[in-house]
């Protein structure tokens, strides 16, 4: 096929007596051809396929029916690019794979280290929250005791002046209040 002369599709049209294809190329897999810069070139063997397509369309068949008939009548052309004679040495494919495996192992270790660090940070956050909650509870308890002491002192201020002066337990009560306040 390399020695055969190829024709461009507009050049094929006069010999087949069909207009050049402007629409999508749906039947092209049965035509041996080469794609050039801006034109598709067909081999002389493609002329039979083009004539057959023309007669099927003239018979009133749809594109799907034409495609089915072409599958039955002509083999499909599959273009395969040739592999260079040298090929690829097996070591050259194994080395990049090994390098990728090593890199993946390093990435896996980094991810594990990052997850351990994240877990440690999460534990620290939990510890800090617990400490904060305990501190907050102590502050609430201290505020409650202070409110009680202030209420008791106000109650003592409401006593008449002679009860405050002649009462001997006043110093004792103040000592109890002071001890309660200092224990907070």
From TrEMBL:
Gene Ontology MF term list: DNA binding
Coiled coil listed as a keyword: yes
Signal peptide: none
Alphabetized InterPro entries for the sequence: DNA-bd_dom_put_sf, MerR-type_HTH_dom
Superkingdom as given in the UniProt entry: Bacteria
Domain HTH merR-type: 32-72
UniProt-recorded name of the protein: MerR family transcriptional regulator
Native source species: Hydrogenibacillus schlegelii
Taxonomic lineage: Bacteria, Bacillati, Bacillota, Bacilli, Bacillales
């Amino acid at each position: 096929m390399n020695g055969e002369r190829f024709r461009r599709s507009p050049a094929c049209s006069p010999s087949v007596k069909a207009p050049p294809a402007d629409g999508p190329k749906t039947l092209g897999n049965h035509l041996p051809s080469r794609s050039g810069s801006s034109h598709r070139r067909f081999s002389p063997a493609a002329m039979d396929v083009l004539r057959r397509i023309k007669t099927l369309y003239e018979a009133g068949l749809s594109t799907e029916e034409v495609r089915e008939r072409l599958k039955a009548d002509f083999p499909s052309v599959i273009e395969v690019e040739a592999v260079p004679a040298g090929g690829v040495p097996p070591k050259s494919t194994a080395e990049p794979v090994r390098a990728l495996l090593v890199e993946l192992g390093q990435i896996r270790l980094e991810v594990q280290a990052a997850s351990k660090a994240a877990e440690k940070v999460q534990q620290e956050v939990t510890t800090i929250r617990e400490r904060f909650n305990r501190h907050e509870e102590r502050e609430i308890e201290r505020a409650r005791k202070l409110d009680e002491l202030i209420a008791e002192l106000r109650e003592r201020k409401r006593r008449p002046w002679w009860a405050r002066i002649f009462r001997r337990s006043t110093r004792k009560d103040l000592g109890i209040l002071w001890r309660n306040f200092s224990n907070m």
